[in-house]
Design a protein that fits this description.
This protein has 84 residues and is an alpha+beta fold. 46% of the residues lie in helices and 12% in strands. It has 3 helices and 4 strands. 19% of the residues are buried.
Length: 84
């Protein structure tokens, strides 16, 4: 399944506010504010919070040996995973 938050209406606006307050927002692999929308209601996974907490969470994504985890996340960003 895709992530829970819609990029244009929820993910990007909250990410902008969190980054302005000194925090970070990522999908686990990509900074949310760097994502170019491909669909109006595109959903994305999001990890938001203090830089330390987000870095810790992202570390687990990057160290994961689960190839399908990164493939699925990147497919979501490209819009190739359809919402159920």
């Amino acid at each position: 399944k895709d992530g829970k938050l819609r990029l244009l209406y929820e993910g990007a606006p909250m990410s902008f506010i969190i980054e302005q307050a000194g925090g970070k927002a990522t999908t686990g692999f990509v900074r949310v504010m760097d994502i170019t929308p491909v669909r109006v209601h595109q959903r994305i996974p999001v990890v938001m919070g203090s830089p330390e907490d987000v870095d810790e969470c992202q570390k687990y994504y990057l160290e994961s040996h689960d190839v399908s985890l990164k493939e699925t996340c990147m497919a979501r960003l490209e819009g190739s995973v359809k919402a159920a």
